[in-house]
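User: These chains co-purify. Model them together.
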Amino acid sequence: MGRGGLHRNVRKLSLLLILGVLFTAGVVLTGCQKGQNAAPTTIKIGLAGAQTGSDGQIGLSMLNGSKIAIDEWNAKGGLLGKQIEPVILDDEASGQKAVTVAQSLIDAGVAAVIGHFNSGCTIPASRHYNDAKIVEISPGSTNPTYTEQGFPYAFRICGRDDQQGVIIAAFLHDQLKVNKIAILDDKTTYGEGLANVVEKEFKAKGGTVVMSQGIGKDDRDFRANLAVVKGSGAEAFVWGGMYGQGGPLCVQLRQAGLTIPFVSDDGCQDQAFLDTVGGKAQNVYLSFGKDFNTIPAAQPFLIKYKETFGREVGAYSVYGYDAANVLFTAIEKAQSTDADKVAAVMKGQPFDTVMGRIEFDSKGDLKEAGYVIWTVKDDKLQVLPSGP
Amino acid sequence: MTTQTLIEITINGISRGAVYALVALGYTMVYGVLGMINFAHGEIFMIGMFACVYALGIFANAWGDQVLLNLGLAIAVAMIFSAAYGYANERIAYRRLRKAHVLAPLTSAIGISTFLQYFIFLTVSRDTVNFPRYYSDYLTSHHVHIGPAEITYLQLAILGLTLVIMAGLFYLINCTRLGIALRATAQDQLMASLVGIPVNRIIAFTFILGSALAAIAGVMVSMYDNVLVFDAGYRVGLKAFTAAILGGIGNVPGAVLGALILGLTEALTTLQFGSQWNDVTTFVVLMLVLLLRPRGLLGERVADKV
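Assistant: Joint model of the two components:
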């Protein structure tokens, strides 16, 4: 190495030095910016859920429900005298992506999170919100694990699958009076979790489960499973999963010549399911919450949703709306966005929502889940009149 | 387990295999000529589904429900749409990368695949769309009896179509002047162009043909599954790709054989262990075949053997 080499080294060194100086300046500058933001003029609220992927539509309609609540509160003057600023992120119904979303929301400095939708997203994300001391309220995740982790800031404004599974098993055994059932699920945290509860509860009632299988979330040919169902002598068929598969599954069940009851869950409570199976479908039953179409208090919201987004509400829009309202009411009552104070308010008193008066238990679950059985009748999904 | 269940499972397995085969043929043809895996093939298949259903809607509004006429025209529209997309893919995403490192067109194909999926998701439909059952009812509700079990006309149609297309492609590649040009392009593009074969046009033709076949597959599968959705191409595409490898990628009868084996494996797994084991058994079969016959069951690219 001669003089030239040394010269090059000096140039490299000075380049490094310059880069170093620039980097330090950058850090200092951003640091200053953070300092300036110390007194924000808005309260940031995270809205997280699936907006793309096969659960994109139902997830988006949930977030849209929350957006309407935010607009209403902002029009009334905001929260604690500040405007609410939604930070909306898409977890693509993927647990891994949900963790990234959680981290981004925490970095953005949100005061609380409304979401996620899929249980498989809410559960991994909840650990991060808990560590960051952020209240999370899920409008649609029904897997029990979410609130069983002992996180003080985790809430849900829907039922749990162990409540839903009990209702489904009781319906099969007591109302349909079947003894042999076949179960298929979509292998997700939600679908499989629910299917397991139904299986356990149905067996506890003295019934027999003649088939219990899982299938990939993007499979749409169920004929092999249905051939097994046919050979097993099942008297009813249970699907634990979402409407995207539930619809074609129900159609293929009938095409295979099976007229046994098709029983499914809140994941199939969607217009798209009805469109696929058709308004004349017989012997189709779904478990879901109360019928918000018949609740007078929900009507202004339903109308406003249609005006704002140009389409009917999704199954979880009302839950998204209620979750936001409960959260904001609690923040207003606590006069703070501090997670401990907000959580204490939420667990300490009942709230009036468009779905009626609700109360949280010490885990963050609803004290009364209010699941009922729905059916397809007169081209509509309707609550099944109780009794046989 | 009754014989009826066993026969039904076999029928369903073969039909499912035929569905995979329809898509696998396109994969294997492009690979046979270009030595490149077109990961966007599943999306071309999905675009065929959507084009068909929207065309059916338009025709039904224009002159009423003429089942055969509308269905025939809609399949033609789907084939034209898919072929146009396939050709555009080749021009935009692959042609300039033909001489690049082997990973470049592969990455480009994955990019195109994601792009097309979300393009359809954002512009056409976020939700599942139903295939109008008015057009498929005849095929799904009539069946032929095989012992105690039955096979629907639709399943027969899918299987028949697969075999006809396989035979057609085999004839095209091995017995026509165009086939000679295809095989020459597959062997050596430079040499082929020196003897006067329009290599670019031959490759474009391969994409157009493969995409039109994907559209036919799309129509059949959307009838079979009753619904179509923007990510429908992903899983079927992956399975078809596996089938093509199993049979020996680039080999036309191999793709069909691989697909039938795959479909039967899945159906028998469902019967024996439950469908949650499908992916496990599928890939165990793939691994065993590749360990014993690294070039697939019937060997790789037909052209290399000439």
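The interface with chain A takes residues 1-2, 4-5, 8-9, 12-13, 15-16, 19, 118, 121, 126-128, 130, 133, 140-141, 152, 224-227, 229, 231-232, 234-235, 266-267, 270-271, 274-276, 278-279 of chain B (CB under 8 Å).
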